[in-house]
Design a protein that fits this description.
Length: 669
């Protein structure tokens, strides 16, 4: 080692540090350090034992800084094509957006090191997709949101207040991106060309990234706008087949709503529009929670007893800033506490959503529960209570009449065109009502109820139940036809489920010996399948629903097993039961279609039936030829299959990692 003495105190301004009694663990070898020049903890190893001067330290830091810049430049060049804009510019970062509210894309280390699959998927489209579009395009999408999404059936904003805040640049980017992603599917703007689905994914991913950065990272308190954005994103995820991140986002927005106290009456110090907006946000989340509970292993998270806030008021009053007291959920279902004024269109949606949640809980979630459960034909059973509530709604609010008679021309059609913010919720409430009846009287679900309780249903009960299910399935078909005749576009996200459930009942009557039943089923199924084809052009899960119906249509043996006076359910084989479950399970419908037959084995795990005890070890398979309405599968392949939810996580996929890292955009692909 050098014998050079340390510099004087004037040359080396820092106080001397006393040597520790032992060398570091990396250098220790016996009583004294031996690997001095390899020790990473000594800063003067390359200086022959001399402490570095201030100039040496500065030079070292500059050298390290230049090295980091070189690494950053190299990394940015690797991802340059991903962020180039559509005009062909080669700049990576934009100094200013094309919209007053746009912001440059932040190059955080997380995006550089681990780009998500969603960004890779859209890298060929252009970097402008992850920025706000030009002002005129963004404004047109905002207009489209309020004409095609708002109040249909979810109501998150007071339109006038939102537009004012948007014009003043007070709406956060994550909420704007969520709204654009929600309305883009209805757009025909040439700005997006043919990459519409990729852009929806990009906007949704961008919104979620902002939320993670601005809320999760800073651990700040949530607000109403966070709740609105996450709820919109959950709908996008769930309907696109990303059921795991979508389901967790639904749970997150429920907890945020509870944290904000939205289930309680808002503070009277708030303005009339702000109070009503908070009520509508909560009831929209409540409705979403109940609708998504129509899938197995997806129970509702909001209890009716916790909902103490008033039901939504009338839309015209909301627009004009008029405050009127409305009933609570408990009061609306009470047979004692009645109100003369008819509830608003949105309030009717909430009431029927509450009932469909009860139907799903009883017919889908509790079908195998036997302890303390009475058979459906018992007057004290849950089945009887739900049916009684449906009859109460039908009587009290005249649900079931012709839809044109149900809407007020003075309120909904002042300019000669129906106001879908008012008419839309009414049509949606009717669809939920018919779907609730179909779930409650679905032949397959009734069989599951009877089988789990080990009791054979009375012939009179079964006859009335089958008749009620068929009538309401027909009314759902008629509703779609009448709405189209009125010029109303009703391609709502949950309408696909309503249509599929009702159409599955029609498939059971295609080969009925009664000519009238057969012909009615054929006509209804034709119109409902045509609707699903239009629906699939807007919502990704529509292809799954078409595939499910096509599979049921190709099985004429269902008539012998399900909808006869003495059903012979033992004729159903394993796959037929899986197909019937798929027709009533929103979880199965809302997933990406299966891409290969290799994962077909996972379908058998789900079925709630104990196959060995019902059919024996080998089951019972019927091979029946003939097919009057043979169709193709959802992905265009004959006989295509869907993976039915089995409660198990696919290998290598964690919903929690995809939930926060945007990989959920391709979940299950």
């Amino acid at each position: 080692m050098s014998s050079q003495s340390p510099p004087d105190r004037d040359e080396y301004p820092y106080p001397r540090i006393r040597r520790i009694s032992q060398a570091c663990l990396n250098c220790r070898s016996g009583a004294s350090p031996q690997a001095l020049f390899q020790c990473p903890t000594l800063t003067y190893k390359s200086l022959g034992g001399r402490r570095p001067s201030a100039q040496d330290q500065l030079a070292t830091r500059i050298s390290a800084f230049e090295g980091k810049l070189d690494e950053l430049l190299s990394t940015m060049n690797k991802f340059l094509p991903m962020f180039q804009n559509q005009r062909g510019t080669t700049s990576v970062l934009s100094t200013e957006g094309t919209h007053p509210n746009s912001v440059p894309y932040p190059f955080s280390s997380s995006h550089i090191k681990t780009p998500s699959a969603s960004y890779q998927a859209i890298s060929n489209v252009g970097g402008s997709l992850i920025e706000l579009p030009p002002g005129q395009v963004a404004s047109s999408l905002i207009d489209l949101y309020f004409s095609r999404v708002h109040n249909q059936p979810y109501s998150f904003f007071h339109e006038q207040s939102f537009r004012q805040r948007y014009a003043n640049g007070l709406v956060p980017e994550y909420l704007i991106f969520a709204m654009l992603a929600s309305s883009l599917r209805f757009s025909t703007d040439a700005f997006y060309q043919t990459k519409q689905q990729d852009i929806i994914m990009a906007y949704a991913s961008r919104s979620w990234s902002y939320i993670v950065q601005e809320w999760f990272a800073t651990e700040s308190d949530p607000d109403l706008q966070i709740c609105q954005a996450i709820t919109l994103l959950s709908i996008i995820d769930f309907t696109a087949g990303r059921r795991h991140p979508g389901w967790m986002k639904i749970g997150l927005c429920i907890r945020i709503a509870q944290e904000l106290g939205l289930m309680l009456e808002p503070d009277s110090s708030l303005s009339i529009s702000d109070r009503e907006e908070r009520r509508r946000v909560f009831w929209s989340i409540y409705t979403l929670d109940k609708l998504c509970s129509c899938g197995r292993a997806r129970p509702s998270a909001i209890l009716d007893a916790q909902c103490q806030v008033q039901l939504p008021g009338h839309e015209i009053d909301f627009r004009n800033g008029i405050s009127k007291k409305t009933q609570t959920l408990k009061q609306a279902f009470s047979t004692v506490d009645t109100q003369d004024e008819r509830p608003s269109h949105l309030a009717l949606v909430v009431l029927v959503a509450s009932i469909i949640g009860k139907c799903a809980q009883h017919m889908i979630h509790d079908h195998g529960r036997t302890e303390g459960c009475l058979p459906p034909w018992d007057s004290k059973s849950d089945f009887a209570m739900i049916h009684s509530t449906l009859l109460q709604l039908e009587t009290q609010f005249e649900i079931g009449n012709n839809i044109e008679e149900a809407v007020s021309v003075q309120e909904c059609c002042e300019t000669g065109v129906y106001d879908m913010q008012i008419v839309g919720p009414t049509i949606f409430a009717y669809a939920l009502f018919y779907t609730s009846q179909c779930l409650l009287h679905h032949p397959f679900l009734l069989y599951q109820q009877s089988k789990s309780r080990g009791a054979k249903p009375p012939a009179s009960f079964l006859s009335r139940a089958l008749q009620s299910g068929r009538e309401n399935a027909y009314l759902m078909s008629k509703l779609l036809v009448d709405a189209e005749a009125m010029g109303c576009s009703v391609v709502y996200s949950f309408f696909g489920y309503c249509t599929t459930v009702c159409a599955s009942i029609h498939t059971m009557y295609l080969n009925h010996q009664n000519i009238e039943c057969h012909e009615q089923a054929r006509q209804c199924l034709t119109s409902q399948r045509a609707f699903l084809e239009q629906y699939a052009m807007v919502w990704s899960n529509g292809k799954n629903m078409i595939g499910i119906l096509d599979k049921l249509v190709s099985q004429p043996s269902l008539i012998l097993a399900v909808v006869v006076a003495t059903p012979r359910f033992e004729l159903l084989d394993r796959e037929q039961v899986v197909d019937l479950w798929a027709a009533v399970d929103y979880t199965t419908m809302s997933q990406e279609a299966m891409r290969s037959a290799a994962s077909r084995a996972s379908m058998d795990v789900l079925s709630p039936v104990n196959w060995d005890s019902v059919f024996g070890a080998n089951g019972n398979t019927n091979t029946i030829g003939g097919d009057s309405m043979q169709g193709s599968s959802a992905d265009g392949a004959q006989g295509g299959r869907l993976t039915v939810y089995n409660g198990a996580m696919p290998p290598g996929m964690s919903p929690f990692s995809t939930f926060f890292n945007d990989a959920g955009l391709n979940f299950g692909a």
